[in-house]
Amino acid sequence: MKYLFYFGHPAQYLFLRETIRRLSLSADNQIIILIKTKDVLEELVKADGFPYTNILTKQRGISKLSVVLSFLNRIRILIPIIFRKKPDLLIGTDATIAQLGKLFGINRITIVEDDYDVIRNLANLTYPVTQTILCPDVCQVGPWTAKKIGYKGYMKLGYLHPAVFTPDPGISQKYDLPKQYVLIRLARLTAHHDFGIHGIDVDLLQEVIELIEAAGVGVKITAEATIDPRFTHFLLKIDPSDLHHVLAQATLLLSDSQSMSVEAAMLGVPSIRYSDLVGRISVLEELEHVYSLTFGIHTGHKRQLLDCLTDLLQTPDRKATFKTRRERMLADKLDVTAFLVWFLEQYPISLDKMKGNPAYQDRFL
């Protein structure tokens, strides 16, 4: 089968990276990878050695107009590629994949992890024309439940499940990291669901750092954009492919990024997310209220954030406690990569099988 994958974000690529590796082992499969410029996406694909094409080498702006123009440009670029490559299956999150698949009569799968109400604009462009919405079973897809294939897992388990990922015990020595450190993630907030969303500002960041250092714990910052010069000496300077190894060794994560908060939970690292999106994303709600692996605080509740941070830093046996919580979560979830390989290799037979018997996926637990 000839697969065409389009990735517009590093997390989308990481989710399917191991799946692509396994699909590539069969001589019967052909893999086409298309990307756009976004953060460290190209660096990751290049480091993994996969052939790929960057169809948008300039990172788009953050305005709504920029989003629309970029969408139209992707349509223009993708049409001749699809004509030339003639893929059997299109896979991605982007609406262009679903729309062009519908236009040319090609099988297509939309992969998401956000709820319909959070990504309503993207969903309304995508869901009416896609064949399959492949997402965690906890995700809500609005009026398109007939197209939903829900799996018992999370996208981040595609690259952070213990069957796929083993933390590097030498990472602290490699980057001279302190014995204990809080990793602070500052998102750029430019995704389709991020307009009007706020996170950690400069004044709060200063208070947070002072509190952490007073507890005798180090601070490392990873940011998607340029940060205030006062904090540049905290910046984590590493190979992007090592980020999850650094996260796995962290004392905890403080973040205004929903994506990295989920990643921390997959690794059993406690996290505090400070965002207007708290309470709106089903994956994170489950991780917080069922498994107690992350804690969400709405922006504007600074005192609550500082109190939560203090409590976590002072929690006895914190590492063992969160290890146990992670193990409980993993016991309930699939080996997502094994499931994905089966689902993609057998598509569309796998689609019919899952619709007829959703419990079929339990063989991947």
Outline of the structure:
Helix content is 42%, strand content 16%. It is of the alpha/beta class and 365 residues long. Helix 1 (10-24) crosses helix 14 and helix 8 packs parallel to helix 12 (302-314).
Number of helices: 15
* Number of structurally distinct domains: 2
User: Which spans have pLDDT < 50 for at least 5 consecutive residues?
Assistant: 189-197
Strand order of the largest sheet: 3-2-1-4-5-6-7
CATH class descriptor of the largest domain: Alpha Beta
Average pLDDT level: 94
Which overall shape is indicated by the principal axes computed on the Cα atoms? globular
Instruction: Let me know the largest β-sheet.
Output: 7 strands, parallel
Strand content: 15-25%
Per CATH, what is the topology of the largest domain?
A: Rossmann fold
Q: How many strand units?
A: 12
Query: What is the terminal separation in angstroms?
Result: 26 Å
Task: Indicate the CATH architecture of the largest domain.
Answer: 3-Layer(aba) Sandwich
The assigned structural class equals: alpha/beta
Q: Which H/E pattern describes the elements?
A: EHEHEHEHEHEEHHEHEHEHEHEHHHH
CATH homologous superfamily label of the largest domain: Glycogen Phosphorylase B
Radius of gyration: 20 Å
Helix share, percent? 40-55%
